[in-house]
Design a protein that fits this description.
Oligomer: single chain
Distance between the termini: 35 Å
Largest sheet: 2 strands, antiparallel
Order of helices and strands: EHHHHHHHHHHHEH
Strand content: under 5%
Shape: globular
Structural class: mainly alpha
Length: about 280
């Protein structure tokens, strides 16, 4: 199935400087920790995704899909660069981001060593479904980032848009190289357990570093944000279950309007800059 949008590589950089405080989401420190938690996954995760698609490039004869793979890799490469810088800012604030990122990298290296290429691609499809689903929710509900530092909100919205634009690329490659329903859904079940297990682990470690892991107030605010207001867990669950539908395709959810609205707003671009030569090379 053809993509419903034309993905675009946007070479943007975001200044996470001293104005971005440890608590950059005003609703709670635990909510700030949750976003920081997710950032730790991206550098090793997106390198894994790029390698998984490139491993099948020579089996793709469709020029359109080859172009999408190229843009996918470009977008994910820039996401990696920006989240490397994001995670470095977490290290500078005293969080164990580098150590946690290294553990994710080791986990994925073991997968690369042991899993066949198509299985690695199925893992990429599963994890891309999570990033695209969360991106859709973030773009469609302004309450998710209500009260966030404008630079951080801009970074996350930019990332969400590009995850939306390329949300079907890995899936289409997987289908093109013989992927099947049983394999992709079985892989999704395993990926769900491992990914959310790591999310919980990261959340606990970051909250412990801030001395709030035993705070009833912080846990109440975090759980309310997840399950009640805005309650993003419920639309995420619906989108997750949709992945198990026979005949599922990522663009069955047509959310081009969210991408168009972001482009028209110019907000993320206003808080971004062109990278310096040293940033671009990193």
């Amino acid at each position: 199935m053809a993509s419903s949008v034309v993905p675009q590589v946007r070479n943007l950089a975001f200044d996470i400087d001293e104005s971005v405080h440890r608590r950059w989401h005003e609703k709670s420190q635990a909510i700030t920790n949750f976003f920081d938690n997710l950032s730790i996954f991206f550098p090793p995760g997106e390198r894994f995704f790029i390698a998984s698609l490139n491993a099948h490039r020579d089996r793709i004869g469709d020029k359109r899909l080859l172009d999408e793979i190229r843009v996918f890799c470009g977008q994910e490469g820039i996401h990696t660069r920006e989240h490397v810088r994001y995670n470095a800012s977490l290290d500078a604030k005293g969080y164990p981001a580098s150590e946690m990122e290294a553990r994710v990298r080791k986990l994925l290296a073991n997968v690369e060593k042991r899993a066949p290429a198509r299985r690695r691609l199925a893992i990429t499809c599963a994890l891309e479904h999570f990033t695209a689903s969360m991106g859709h929710i973030l773009l469609s509900d302004p309450r998710i980032l209500d009260g966030a530092h404008p630079t951080m909100a801009a970074l996350w919205r930019w990332h969400a848009v590009e995850e939306t634009e390329h949300k079907a690329t890995a899936f289409d490659v997987y289908q093109a190289v013989g992927g099947n329903y049983v394999e992709r859904t079985a892989i999704m079940l395993g990926a769900t357990v491992i990914f959310w297990g790591k999310v919980i682990e990261h959340q606990l470690r970051l909250m412990k570093r801030d001395g709030i892991h035993l705070s009833r107030k912080e846990w109440k605010q975090l759980l309310r944000w997840i399950f009640v207001d805005p309650g993003w867990a419920w639309p995420l669950l619906r989108m997750y279950l949709d992945y198990f539908r026979p005949g599922f395709h990522p663009w069955d959810l047509d959310n081009r309007a969210l991408v168009d609205a972001w482009k028209a707003s110019g907000v993320s671009q206003a808080y971004a800059k062109r990278p310096t030569p040293s940033e671009a090379a990193s």
